């Protein structure tokens, strides 16, 4: 009998803690939602992989390859003409699926 009462008390305490945590989380989420601007654009798709072409401080064209917020690669060389960087991007897109992986970590 004593064990059953003890278990019931622990279960009741656990339910109470979870309920309080749920109320606290819901209130925090409501405060967070009020701070968001109503007309903001939806966030970009996290899985979208994109080549971004940009000009560096020296006026040369470069690219960065991003997936969502993660930076995957950048161009190590700047190009004077935008068409040159676009050719590099097209070569990467075409050849990447056929590229071999060379493990240099054990050297």
Structural account:
The protein folds into two domains: 1-32; 49-98, YegP-like (Double Stranded RNA Binding Domain). The protein has two helices and three strands; from the N terminus they run αβββα. The chain has helices at 2-35, 82-95, and strands at 49-55, 61-67, 70-74.
Structure class: alpha+beta
Number of DSSP helical runs: 2
How helical, in percent, are the residues?
Answer: 40-55%
How are helices and strands ordered from N to C?
Answer: HEEEH
Summarize the helices and strands and which ones pair or pack.
Layout: H1 2-35, E1 49-55, E2 61-67, E3 70-74, H2 82-95
Antiparallel strand pairs: 1-2, 2-3
Features:
107 residues, alpha+beta, Double Stranded RNA Binding Domain, 2 domains, three-stranded antiparallel beta sheet, 3 strands, 18% strand
How is this structure best summarized?
This protein is an alpha+beta fold and 107 residues long.
């Amino acid at each position: 009998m004593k064990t059953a009462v003890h278990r019931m008390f622990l279960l009741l305490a656990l339910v109470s803690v979870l309920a309080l945590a749920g109320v606290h989380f819901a209130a925090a989420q409501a405060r967070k939602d009020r701070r968001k601007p109503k007309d903001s654009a939806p966030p970009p798709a996290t899985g979208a992989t994109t080549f971004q072409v940009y000009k560096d401080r020296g006026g040369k064209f470069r690219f960065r390859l991003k997936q969502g917020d993660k930076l995957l690669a950048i161009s190590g060389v700047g190009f004077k003409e935008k068409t040159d960087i676009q050719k590099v991007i097209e070569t990467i897109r075409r050849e990447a699926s056929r590229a071999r992986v060379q493990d240099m970590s054990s050297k």
